[in-house]
Structure formats: structure tokens, C-alpha cells
């Protein structure tokens, strides 16, 4: 038996009991005969019980679930600020209750209640609007506790990690380098997707999922930059990427990814995106036409006579007339640099003067 059905039965009994007393009162007030009075009471009991069976969930379980869902989706800083503001407001109301009780009736009965409501709401709204300052004053250094069901204190420098950037693995080196400040957050639904990938029957997907879990495990042991798992969820949407974007908007923090489609959708919705691929392209060595470099030509190019080599960061170097030098390490002169969607491509020609 579900909890809601139990409350329906309890409500039906309570309303039926109330209907019994209501029926008796109506019978006495209307001067109805005993036989008709019994029928009237039975009708009142049945009607009241039916009403109780229907409306009880809307008075008990439904509001509770709505409140629970609202609390689950509310950042912990807002919850902490609201509760603290309410307590402070009620304390002020208590201090004012004594002088207000000295006023003549009915002011001394009414004003303390009004003061409690006004100062409670005022305290909540004030601390929620200044929650960032309050959190910094309260904790000094904001963090999340991984053992909590909901986040503790959230810093605007925190970032959300998506599945692709975890599997990619470069985030571990980036976090260790100190370029990221704040806390790296992994929502529980992202962790569940990683586990689902790791349990896949496809060997490639299974290896990718296990790699992502290994990287998370390694990052959690790295105390240089905290990584926390949060149970905050967005039940209105089902897809992981949509949940991530909605959660980022709610928490007002960026998403760290290397997923091109997620990058574009998040930007359209006004969510800040930190793309690892864009970071990698930004920090690659810059070569200008006319500069010289030394590379090993390892394979043929697409065009006749071309040779291809690679820099340490994976940048492709296309060497015109370099096919004859395959397997050799030589100096080349940059002739052209192209930035494509796949990355940076450099065209060069052999530096015959330095190679002779």
C-alpha cells in the first residue's frame, strides 16, 4: 500500500468522523425525525468520507513532495541563507514582543504575530539577496562536501564537468596545473552515465567508461583541486546534456566540456562553456610564415609529393616536396598556417640551405 493511499484512507476516516458529528448537528438543528436523521447522518458520513478520500493528498503528500522537490533543486547557499535569515528575523520579533505586549488590546495580541511574519520574511529575503557575501563571511573558503546529499556552500568559481571531458582525461592534468580555481562538480546523473557506459556490451564504449571512472578516482585523490559529486538534479528534463545545462543555469556556473554540440546549445541558452579543445588550440605554439622548425616526416600527404609530420602537441605539418624525405628529420620553413575546425594545420617547405 502506497503512502498516498494510506493518507487517503486516514483522511476518509477523519472526514467521515467529522461528517458524523456534522450530521448529528444538522439533525438536531432541523428537528428531523429519528428515522430520517439516521439516513441524513449516513449520507453526511459518506459524503464527507468521499471528500476526505479525494482531497487528503492535496493537503498532505502532494505539498510535501512539491516542497521536497523545490528544496532538492535549490542551491544550498540559498537554503542556508533563508533559514539563517528566518531565525534572525524571528529573534528580532521575539525581542519586540515584550514592548508590543504593553500596548492596549487588541494591538498587543495582533502586533507580535504581524512582527514575527514581517521580520521573518524580511530576514529571509535580505540574506538570500546577499547570500554570496554571507557565505564568504561564514566560511572564508567555500567548498562542497562530497558526503552530503546536497551541496554545502557553492562558489561562483565552481565548474560542472560533463561526461565527455571526464573520458577525455586532459581535465586531470589541467586541474593539477592550477589553471582552474574553485570546486569541480560532477552531478550524480553524469556519474551514472559514466557507469552505464562502463557496463556497455561494446568493448570500445566499455573501455571509455572505465577510463572516465579511473580518471575521476585519480582526481578525487588529488588534493590540489577539489572534485565533488553532487546529488542536485533537474527532474523536469531527461537527457543528461539538458540536465547539465539546466543545472548550470540554476547554479550560475560554467560547464567544462569538449563536446561541440553541447558547447553550442549551452551558449545559445546563455550558459558559459569552458571547452578543453579551444584551450588546447589556444596554447599551441604559434608559428609565423618564414619561421623555421625541425620535424620528422613520417608519411605521405594527400597531394602528390607532400610529406607529413607532427609536432609534440599533435599539430599536422604538411611539407611540400617532402615525400622524398619520409623517415628523415629535417628543418622546414613555414609557408602558411590554417586554423580549421579540426585544429591548426601548418604548411611548410624543406629548408634546403640548413639541411645541406
In short:
The chain is built from 14 helices and ten strands. The chain has helices spanning 3-30, 34-59, 61-73, 76-101, 107-129, 131-139, 163-168, 170-177, 188-198, 203-221, 240-251, 260-268, 276-282, 352-355, and strands spanning 159-161, 184-187, 227-230, 255-257, 273-275, 292-300, 307-310, 316-319, 329-340, 343-350.
Write up this protein.
The protein is of the alpha/beta class and 356 residues long. The protein has helices spanning 3-30, 34-59, 61-73, 76-101, 107-129, 131-139, 163-168, 170-177, 188-198, 203-221, 240-251, 260-268, 276-282, 352-355, and strands at residues 159-161, 184-187, 227-230, 255-257, 273-275, 292-300, 307-310, 316-319, 329-340, 343-350. The strands form two sheets. Strands 3-2-1-4-5 form a five-stranded parallel sheet, with helices on both faces. Strands 6-7-8-10-9 form a five-stranded mixed barrel. The longest helix has 28 residues, at 3-30.
